[in-house]
Design brief:
2 copies of one chain form a homodimer. Chain A has 2 domains: 68 residues, Winged helix-like DNA-binding domain superfamily/Winged helix DNA-binding domain (Arc Repressor Mutant, subunit A), CATH 1.10.10; 47 residues, no CATH class. In chain A, 51% of the residues lie in helices and 9% in strands. A two-stranded antiparallel ribbon of chain A has the order 1-2. The two termini of chain A are 37 Å apart. Chains A and B meet through helix 1, helix 2, helix 5 and helix 6 of A and helix 1, helix 2, helix 5 and helix 6 of B. Chain A binds a DNA duplex through helix 4.
Chain lengths: 136, 136
DNA sequence: CGAAATGGTAACCTATTGGTTACCTGTTCG
DNA sequence: CGAACAGGTAACCAATAGGTTACCATTTCG
């Protein structure tokens, strides 16, 4: 099962969100998600096939943990659909950390230049993200 | 049908990628995607339910166009799973246009600062933005 | 007008999903 | 040891998805 199909089920999305807060066992997941234990087991198997989850054996228990790197195809698709004309749509894309870094960097440096140039450096339009109503 | 389920089908993803290059009619989509016309119609109806697509009547034709804004829940989920501790998952998110702008902006202004601080570095015309091989 | 083109819907069929219960294996520990 | 716990798998079942063909409505245009 590919990552898109894996994300299509609401129960699996809930499981992933739960795992985003830290590893968990099957019984824990079953207890908090109103589904039988074999049901959870099956979902975890599918998530494992999609690479979204990894199991770590510890004694008789099995600790499942999230593998966020497997979300890459989703990020790429979204990028391709959101910005068809310009930037990339191919290859890795930016992570949120990088985004935050860019944002900070731009705000700081544009502020510097604005102060230095006294208004000559196109002030306001910087990080105000919108662009959905593009070309038309 | 929610947006996640809508993206689960490979044919629908192909249709969306096609629509990302511009509006298209049902017959056009059917011609290039090895599926019957009613099949395309059904997929488009589901995509419409998910808000990912909008139809515009023009005579007896119907032009379907992509609605990228409907991808928001996907972006939010990915953000929540990727960076539970750090960045966002809140608010609109960045578009590729903005990303390209940020990239350019940072490179230019950091080059300026470097030039200003250290003396002789590369001149500011580095507009060759790339950022593909980072993050992992 | 009437034929052709666009495209939506209905009816139908098969494969897949998502859930269950029942059962089995392996591990811990009183 | 043996009971209890963790968890995977098999068998089964109802519902849904995705595809098709057939049919219908609307619009264009010779």
């Amino acid at each position: 099962m590919d990552v898109f199909a894996a994300l299509a089920d609401p129960v699996r999305r809930q499981l992933l969100l739960r795992l985003a807060t830290g590893p968990a066992r099957v019984v824990d997941l079953a207890a908090t998600h109103d589904i039988s234990r074999p049901g959870v087991s099956k979902h975890l198997r599918l998530l494992g096939e999609a690479g979204l989850v990894r199991a770590e054996r510890r004694g008789r228990e099995r600790h499942y943990r999230l593998e966020a790197a497997a979300l890459q195809p989703v990020v790429e698709l979204v990028a391709a659909l959101r910005g068809p004309g310009q930037a990339g749509s191919r290859s890795p894309r930016f992570t949120d950390q990088v985004l935050a870094g860019l944002d900070l960097e731009v705000r700081r440096t544009t502020a510097e230049r604005t102060t230095r140039d006294r208004g000559a450096a196109r002030p306001g339009r910087d990080t105000h993200h919108r662009a959905e109503e593009d070309s038309a």
